[in-house]
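PROTEIN DESIGN WORKSHEET
SECTION A - STRUCTURE
LENGTH: 267
TOKENS:
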């Protein structure tokens, strides 16, 4: 299936195609239950989560159920939902603004939802999703993610894989558990290392994103990377280089692999 989408934005015909790093993430085989695209800002991560069901043609299957999460509803309304309107409407989708659900001609649906607490995760207790996506994964607590991934994502339809795809920058409340789950087993994030989880008998993979991977941003706003130099050195490394081993806005200005006797250990 060709990995491109044609749509109209402001009456102008546009064609979306993945750049190489996005294509690497899209090429993860579906046996990889959890895929994580993480790193710098501007890496084209968030829109990829919106586009995956369309690129894969799942929206043409009447049984398909997908869900895309952000931490809060205002964040969804600010970014992901407007982006979905450009793409999903061109694919025949009709948006229910009350329930935040897109319904396609086939009967397939894609829902936008938020998780501010474990109670929000449990509110999906009777739902079943073939595809769950978490935008800015480090904004979530681990138990919120684990509950959805562990109990709500499944499939009995051979042509619809059960899978989870997420994206995020380093930092925020979930930095530690996301780094431990995805980044530490494959620090380079080339997408070639498949991580096997002995407990769940499933596979995970990490694809690292850098701002310079996005040729469209570098072409149309080449000075953006320079403006980011006004950030603190630690935050610059996190947001521009996608460095998961710096801890912006925390007590220590630098990170050491070696533990010094008497200081608190990072868990």
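SECTION B - SEQUENCE
RESIDUE ASSIGNMENT:
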């Amino acid at each position: 299936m060709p990995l491109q989408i044609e749509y109209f934005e402001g009456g102008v015909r546009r064609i979306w195609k993945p750049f190489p790093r996005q294509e690497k993430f899209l090429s993860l085989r579906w046996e990889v239950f959890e895929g994580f695209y993480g790193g710098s800002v501007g890496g084209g991560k968030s829109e990829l989560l919106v586009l995956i069901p369309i690129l894969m043609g799942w929206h043409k299957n009447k049984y398909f159920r997908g869900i895309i999460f952000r931490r809060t509803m205002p964040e969804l309304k600010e970014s992901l939902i407007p982006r979905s309107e450009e793409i999903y409407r061109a694919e025949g989708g009709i948006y229910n603004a009350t329930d935040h659900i897109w319904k396609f001609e086939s009967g397939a649906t894609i829902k936008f939802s938020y998780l501010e607490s474990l109670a929000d995760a449990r509110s999906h207790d009777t739902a079943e999703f073939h595809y769950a996506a978490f935008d800015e994964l480090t904004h979530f607590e681990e138990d919120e993610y684990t509950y959805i991934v562990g109990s709500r994502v499944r499939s009995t339809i051979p042509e619809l894989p059960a899978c989870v795809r997420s994206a995020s920058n380093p930092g925020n409340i979930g930095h530690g558990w996301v780094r431990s789950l995805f980044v530490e087993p494959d620090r380079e994030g080339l997408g070639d290392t498949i991580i096997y989880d002995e407990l769940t008998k499933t596979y995970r993979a990490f694809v690292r994103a850098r701002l310079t991977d996005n040729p469209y941003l570098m072409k149309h706003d080449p000075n953006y990377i320079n403006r980011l130099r006004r950030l603190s050195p630690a935050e610059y490394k996190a947001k521009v280089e996608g460095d998961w081993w710096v801890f912006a806005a925390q007590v220590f200005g630098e990170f050491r692999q070696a533990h010094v006797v008497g200081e608190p250990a990072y868990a």
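SECTION C - NOTES
The CA atoms of residues 134 and 166 lie 5 Å apart.
The first strand starts at residue 5 and ends at 9.
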